[in-house]
Amino acid sequence: GGPKHPTWYHNLKAHPDQVTVQDGETVIDGVAREIDGDEYAQWWERAVAAYRDYADYQQRTERKIPLFLVEPKN
Question: What is the arithmetic mean of pLDDT over 30-55?
Answer without folding.
Answer: 96
